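Hey all, sorry for the wall of text incoming. These are the two entities for the joint prediction.
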Amino acid sequence: MNFEPLWTSVEYGLQAAQGISMFMTLLVPLLTALLCGLIGTRRFMEVSSLLGSALTTFFGILLIREVLIDEPILQLGGLLYADALSAYLVLIVSAMGMLSSLYSIGYIGHEFSKGVFGSGKLREYYFLLNLFLFTMLVAAVANNLGVLWVAIEGTTLASAFLVGFYDREESVEAAWKYLILGSVGITFALLGTVLVYFSALAAFKTSGAAGTLNWTDLVNPSMASQLDPRILKLAFIFVLVGYGTKAGLAPMHTWLPDAHSQAPTPISALLSGVLINAAMYAILRFHHLLSVSAVGPDFSSHLLLIFGIFSLGIAIPFILVQRDYKRLLAYSSIKHMGLIATGVGLSTPLAIYGALLHALNHALAKTMIFMSAGNLFLKYQTKEISLVQGATKVMPATGVLLLLGTLAITGVPPFNLFISEFLILSGSFSSKSFLVGSLILLFIVAAFAGFVHHLNQMAFGTPKDHVPSGEENPSGLLPLAILLVLVLLLGVYIPGPLHELLQQAAKVVRPQ
Amino acid sequence: MRLCSADWGVQFDPLLVERIIDVLAAFIFVCSLLVLATERRHLHVRLYAVQSFFLAAVAFSVAFFNCERHIFIATGLTLILKVIAIPLLMERIMRRLVPQHPVKPALNVPSSLLIAAVLVLAADYLTRSILATGHEFELTRNVLTISLSVVLLGLLTMITRKKALTQVIGFLTMENGLFLAGIAITAGMPMIVELGIFFDVLVAAFIMGVFLYRISETFDTINVEELTRLKH
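and here's what came out:
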């Protein structure tokens, strides 16, 4: 048989799809959200969320192909822009979105059929879940720094009701803190953006062009060199404080453990694994802008390094004394975010590559461990570490996955986080930042000790009599299995396209 | 349409225009101070509406005198959303909340005003450190100082007041300060950004309102000091 016509048509179709891939990564989740809002039947929403996020991931991968083969893309009159860094964030958001949708079918379905909430709430859940993914994707491909701000504020608004989903005292309190601190933080980020615009206006006036906040115009060397360094420095401080609040950088992190632990588990995974990366991405855009301007890369690098190390350090005591396992995971996110900021702040190509890889690795491992913790919660109905015992006996599959997730998140080889942590460490030692390197090492070891101590209690020991054996959420094991394969795979091998993408993204973070 | 001064062929003294904007901005600042100086929440909402009105006036002046036509849209939106819609929404929510015992602020009024003075000095210092001295920057410098001060005073309100509603007002005034900077020192952000910001603020105010209501339902109070279920 002759397959040639078939392949030609597939290739043709792919090419056609490529031209619209960036646009489709936004359109699909938005449509999915609207459909879920309009048609509130359970099966329909579960299937459309899964299909929608799978389609988004497909277009995300096409986008990566396009960005790697050709140059960065500009669309919709310069409103949308994708380079390697945006494509990388699109990949993280859409892939994790797909896994969370898959996990939601079992987890949210289980709680729904147990009567924890009604069908109106179910509709709210799927609507907001897809809207939340949409806002993060807009942040990834926004060219205009103001639109980027609108999108990041949008993530807070879309996810606030998800954090307060259960309407309990704790969840309302967590949602309130999240909303207030998130909005205040983001106000400072807007102030920073206004200042950047202000300094750009003078430059635009001399060149006779109309003022714009398009990132591509601002980082243009002829423009960037004219921006007033004093204003840019102040703007970056505001931006770092603002988006840093959303990224969970200490000391603006106080809302994070509450929100991440009170949200429904699939949302916790998205908040911890994905949202904080989106906020960090916004900071990196400004970092690039400062690097190519008269300020140079050192100012923002040093600030990122200081905030990074501080966040790393501040998370450790809370990890050690933690009594609630979902909060434990939330504090671990602060630690890993600190590590990513430190890696970028170290400013060597190796450390930046490691930090970017760490964002994906952390997203995978954190999603995995949150999902196994979610299965645990459905069984034990408590988040107290001391009340969970013998998980490996009661629910062997979840118990083992929880243990493997713990090893992955603490950076034990052969799991993926080991590689990225190792790269960041080598980056710090090769640039002779011995103090930073030893601090990172110390904090990683301490977090490892804390995690193993807590999880040891939960996984082993004799289970209480009244807890019957068996899985509560068997379909939730499928996304967990996929994640396990991915964390192991990335621990031994980085695929060629990913390597290429990371290298190009690192060049966006630190222009040479 | 003949909307701005140039359309009518009228030429205003730029110095006069500067003075007008300066004075209006000063009123915005005074409203922020008054929010800090009073503890009655009905007054807080009214003060926010008044402040937004002066903000709309600044926006109108910039649009009219400097012929920045797209700012007329911002003026209209400010009037509709911030002077009317959001205050009405807040009043409505207040009526539905459970009756309140008076709550002592974490910091009394004189001390918070003292801190406010320090914050204003800090804002002034920051502004001077980034903008060259000289007459051409005078308006920009004044307005930027005021908008920074309004942002910081809003933050102070949020930190020192324990009522959830006052925290929302604090947030909204912060945003007003920001908007002042956007309008007066940069002659408005690009249109799509401006619309996006308006949309976000409206949604934020609405969502915060819903949560105000939920807090008062679940906790029987909107005193955020009672929100202490989550520690460590």
